[in-house]
Write a structure and sequence with these properties.
alpha+beta; 3-stranded antiparallel β-sheet; 3 strands
Length: about 70
């Protein structure tokens, strides 16, 4: 598990967007099939990018557990 906060990522120059629509589509489809490792709940896709770097997370809708993938 990778723990992050929006403040940490924002202060590192990341914005909550995917680098392009292709990455967003592919990663969102992957996350739709994921279940939370902590509680088994459904997850949503949370992208973060800055020039030259992209970080993608699945975030549990139920418990908030986050995992970078």
């Amino acid at each position: 598990m990778t723990t992050h906060t929006h403040l940490d990522l924002t202060s590192d120059g990341y914005r909550p967007v995917a680098p392009d629509t292709e990455a967003a589509d592919i990663d969102a489809q992957c996350v739709e099939r994921m279940r939370c490792r902590k509680c088994g709940g459904a997850c949503y896709y949370q992208p973060w990018s800055r020039p030259g770097s992209y970080r993608a997370f699945s975030v549990c809708l139920d418990c908030g557990y986050e995992e970078e993938f």
